Every structure is written in structure tokens, then in C-alpha cells.
Amino acid sequence: MLVWAGNLHIAKAPLKTPNGPYPQMAYWFRNLTEIEPFCIDQTVTVDWAHGNDRGSQHVARFRTELHGYGGTAGFLREEGPDPFQQEIYADAFLLSLHNAMTVTAPVA
Fold first, then answer.
1. How much of the chain is helix, strand and coil, in % rounded to 5?
2. What is the pairing mode between strands 40-41 and 20-22?
3. How many other β-carbons are positioned within 10 Å of the β-carbon of residue 90?
4. Which of 21, 32, 54, 77 is the most buried (most CB within 10 A)?
5. CA triple 48-55-68, angle to 5 deg
6. In this structure, how many other beta carbons lie within 10 angstroms of the beta carbon of residue 24?
7. Per-residue confidence at 73, pLDDT binned at 50, 70, 90?
8. How confident is the model at residue 52 (pLDDT cuts 50, 70, 90)?
9. Mind listing the pLDDT tens digit for each residue in 18-42?
């Protein structure tokens, strides 16, 4: 079964928020089914266009390597560079130079 989720809803560990831990779908899936999901975070290089610079930092750091792979590449957490090896919420990461979020006005 494939579940495609956005905005880090695939996180296996609860996300830390100012209001406390916030469990996501993969966390609940594992706890309810006792099946270990394989989670790929494809949001690490997304330009959310609302001030989150995490994506732009990763793009800047890996730009040369990503160009070598046509702009997009992925890796397993345990084979990835720091700080990805320390992230327990996903099993793999997909980075891309083509992740700008665009906001369009509704057509009237």
C-alpha cells in the first residue's frame, strides 16, 4: 500500500511544536496496525514561500550534487549526510532543486 502525504504527515515520530508533541499519520498507522511504515520525506527542500528557510539551506548545501543528478536525488537516512542520519521521523529523503511552492489566485 502506498500513502502519499504532504506537509510531513508521514513523520513516524511526533513533531515538536510549541504546544507539545504532534503525532502525524505514520505514527498513528504504526501504533494502530503494528506495521512499520517506510517513510520518505520529500519536503526537505521545498520552498514554502512563507519564511521557512530550511529548504533553501538544504538546496544551497546540496546544489552541486543535485545538479549532477538532474536536479533531484534521494538517499536512505542511514546512508545520508548529517543531519539526516539523526532524523528519526523518516527512512529516506528526497531533495530537489524543483520544489518551489507557488500560490495562485482563484479564477473568478
1. 30, 20, 55
2. unpaired
3. 24
4. 77
5. 125
6. 19
7. very high
8. low
9. 999 999 999 999 999 999 999 998 8
